[in-house]
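Tokens for DUF4229 domain-containing protein. Go.
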Amino acid sequence: MTLQATSPRPQSMSAGAAILRVIVTLLMFLVVFIAFLIAPLIALGVGYLVYLAWRSRGGRPSSGGTGPRQQQSVSGFGAGAS
């Protein structure tokens, strides 16, 4: 009868390598998770900046008026009692 001294299965990873693998996996998860949380906020911020730029372009008064300004009549909600 012969006795085999070596293990037939391959060597498993060391404890340090296992810990490193867990840490790397957690870091990858956090990076992806945070990216999915922050990306919508960035998109909303960019959209708001575009909205502000678009609104400021259309809201400028024309500088071609040479006469005195006429006051518009006030009507509608908040105009007061008539």
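Residues 17-57 form one domain.
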